[in-house]
Amino acid sequence: MHMHIGGGGGGGxxxxxxxxxxNKPHLxxxxxxxxxxxxxxxxxxxxxxxxxxxxxSVIELIPPLLARDLIDHAIPARDLSQLSxxxxxxxxxPVVDALIGTVQRWVSSRIGEGIIYDLxxxxxDHIQRMSxxxxxxxxxxxxxxxxxTDVIGAQGAITNTLVSLVTNxxxxxxxxxxxxxxxxxxxxxxxxxxxxxxxxxxxxxxxxRDISRKALELNSQMNGxxxxxxxxxGALLVKVFGRQPREQExxxxxxxxxxxxxxxxxxxxxxxxxxxxxxxxxxxAVLFWSGGYLAITGALSIxxxxxxISYLGxxxxxxxxxTNIQSDLVQSLVSFERVFEYIDLPVDIxxxxxxxHLQHLRGAVGFENVSFSYRAAGxxxxxxxxxxxxxxxxxxxxxxxxxxxxxxxxxxxxxxDGSSTVKGRYWALEDISFDAQPxxxxxxxxxSGAGKTTVSYLLPRLYEPQKGRVTLDGYDLRSLTLETLSDxxxxxxxxxxxxxxxxxxxxxxxxxxxxQTELEEACRxxxxxxxIMTMPLGYDTVVGERGYxxxxxxxxxxxxxxxxLKNPSVLVLDEATSSLDSQSEVxxxxxxxxxxxxxxxxxxxxxxSTILAADLILxxxxxxxxxxxxxxxxxxxxxxxxxLYKTQFRSLSKGAQRAxxxxxxxxxxxx
Length: 671
Fold this sequence. Notes:
Layout: E1 3-4, H1 12-19, H2 29-39, H3 43-59, H4 62-77, H5 80-129, H6 132-137, H7 140-182, H8 184-191, H9 194-230, H10 232-240, H11 244-296, H12 302-343, E2 365-372, E3 388-392, E4 398-402, E5 429-436, E6 441-445, H13 452-458, E7 467-472, E8 475-476, H14 482-488, E9 489-492, H15 503-508, H16 516-525, H17 529-533, H18 552-566, E10 570-574, H19 582-596, E11 600-604, H20 608-613, E12 616-621, E13 624-629, H21 631-637, H22 640-660
Parallel strand pairs: 6-11, 6-12, 9-10, 10-11
Antiparallel strand pairs: 1-3, 2-5, 2-7, 3-4, 7-8, 12-13
């Protein structure tokens, strides 16, 4: 029985968490302190930036004073020399202020871009340490959104909001100081309207904070859909099934949400500035009447009134900016919070303290009572995407399924390796034990979803078993560094992945220091060298997105050449030859026979040749290891393997013998 804890609409744990009022983002001291940790290395530049802001603000106070002298002294006294000096000052001050502003902009940009660089690097480094579970649970577009939209929003907090905050404070303080020194009564009159600005600003800050987070989430969803449907695989799937209208409608709805939230944010901001402008107008009217009255009664000179009117704009502008600064700052900090969410994700698979790095391994592999479930995450590695519903089993293990909650027992869930589980099945692997000796060829066979791919994931420690342990030369994998496992285990997965780069670059990914001679030897061993040399640019040919410029067989042979170049102690092949034609299969079998010598090879076998040549055959069914032995032993046992062989292999093998004169060139399905 499964207990549903997700939202009724399938929003899951993540959406529920953020829908609760107590979990709304807040401008906390902790967040600001954490941002300061990233800003601390730029302290000297921050000091320079503050100095330029202070100097610029003080310089901008001078023009109204020059205007006062012009009206009250130079013109009445008909002093041409003073008039010339005042005119020169009106030219010099803006030029100097512009130069200081340029320095300020350069420094603030260096600080902002530097902090964003550090944030991006920290987030990328952390994500690279995440286990495979993180990437199977998270849409690529959502990850990309954190690096683009959210990081740019965080940058605004440094280069715009922070500079605006400091500038407004300095401008306000300096303007108030000079206004008080000139006429304190007019200054107090100008400040009477301040309470009218506070309440609208506070209300706008709360609304804009919620709108900003919602806007980032909607942008993330839109980016996720884009990433899924505009890459080669997604576009091909859409076209093959003729689903363009559906995808266009989905994208239209996503883009509509982004549009509507943007309009709402613009309107909220606009209404706040309307209120702020009205309050400023009231303050100006009060000052005009008060100043005019004092001038009429002879208490103030006309030049002083003119200077005060000039300062009034410098007073209200930073006041409006400061009342709105909380809104701007919180909007920017929402982006910081979303970046920190990824940086704070727990790393469930990492080097343990004292983990050993080994230079040489024999390649002995052991599984000791291993049980593993994709559902039992222990701790969720990532926020769930929308459309995912979270469940907990009676033992408290967390897992999730796509689609809305059915509220019934025994629903079909989706395994992490892409295979659907049978009703009531929890473990992808249950109590698995076997040993593979150095130099042995071990074939994994069984129906689809039996757990074969899961075995291939546990060996390089892409996932961690909940029970039991996996060993390499007797060492628990958890006692070895991840670098050791990467150095000594070569994995060719079901889906051959090549970077959008040259063939050379894709090969060098396995061994960056390899020479051209070594590249060619590896490609000859994989029977792909001659094909590469027929291409116009040879090894410098760009393979395209996911290698789509190459055929399926060519991609797989490049992938085999890549692992040959790595020369690992343990080789894991997951359907590595499934896309090859019969002639290519002959070549690859010859290459693999050489590659298998001297190293432990674990192969998810879909071809009779591999099965018959295996030293050990492991037969899986519904997550259990039901049989093990060589071909003859398993035939004698007359169990699942024997039934599979009798129903699927024998006729295919005879047909292949008649067609090719060889018994090892044939496709075997579901084994």
